[in-house]
Amino acid sequence: MQEIRLTDRISYIPACEKPLSSDVGIVRGDHFTYIFDVGSTPQTLEYLQGLHGLCDIVISHFHGDHTWWLTSHKKGDEGVEETDEISLNYERPAFHRLYIGSYTKKYIADGEVISAPTIISNRSGMNSSADERIISAGSLDIYDGVKISVIPVPNSHSKGALMMMVDDEYVFMGDATYCTAKGGVQVYNAQLLEEEIRLLKAIPAGTCLISHDRRFARDKRVVLRQLEAVYAKRHSDSPYIEV
């Protein structure tokens, strides 16, 4: 299994196409490991099981390539190959806490729904800036040598998505910068795109970690320029922007 390290605490398992699997984010705290998405390869399953429950998991959104090892499968399901016995008989990885968005709750029943920003922080009791107080509304604070912010992110790709910001420097975004298909056409929702751009500008993180992108770690300024270029193509007579 390939694990690529970004910092002493942050690494990831790259996405792949066969089987279709998301990137899996890994953040090592003092006591727990924080996982962003669980992917769908046997190698990521083995890694997750090897943590023996000493992890918190954040799921970006409900698509199977991000949630596979937390859901059950049967023959004939989309993504289950004829010879795939692992997906039919695997032992679900244990975890300490599981954070999901509201729409993902339809697919994973036992997660804790995050519908307002939540912060898992090593700075409990310390004063924060005005911007940080906005992000930390309704916060959950845990001392673990690292700060994790779990933030709902408006986006065109999927409902009820979450992103995970680490130490105000890196933000795992899953597929939140991608478009969706409507009537066979690739589109962005103009209003959601505007809200996403505003959110990205508001958070302090300078590096976006984007799943399925060969340039997984990308400068936020570049990501914003690309999203703003799409937004500039909007028309007042349509809620969607074709790409």
Characteristics:
243 residues; alpha+beta; Metallo-beta-lactamase, Chain A; 7-stranded mixed sheet; 6-stranded mixed sheet; 27% strand
CATH class: Alpha Beta
Number of domains: 1
N-to-C SSE string, H for helix and E for strand = EEEEEEHEHHEEEHEEEEEHEEHE
Mean pLDDT comes to: 89
SS elements, strand count: 18
Q: Rough shape?
A: globular
Beta-strand fraction estimate: 25-35%
Name of the CATH architecture = 4-Layer Sandwich
For the largest beta-sheet, the strand count, sense and barrel status come to: 7 strands, mixed
- Compute the separation of the termini in Å: 35 Å
In terms of per-residue confidence, which ranges show pLDDT below 50 for 5 or more consecutive residues?
122-141
Total helical elements: 6
At the fourth CATH level, what is the homologous superfamily? Ribonuclease Z/Hydroxyacylglutathione hydrolase-like
The helix content, as a percent range, equals 10-25%
Radius of gyration: 18 Å
And the CATH topology?
Answer: Metallo-beta-lactamase, Chain A
Secondary-structure-based class equals alpha+beta
Q: What's the arrangement of strands in the largest beta sheet?
A: 1-2-5-6-7-8-9
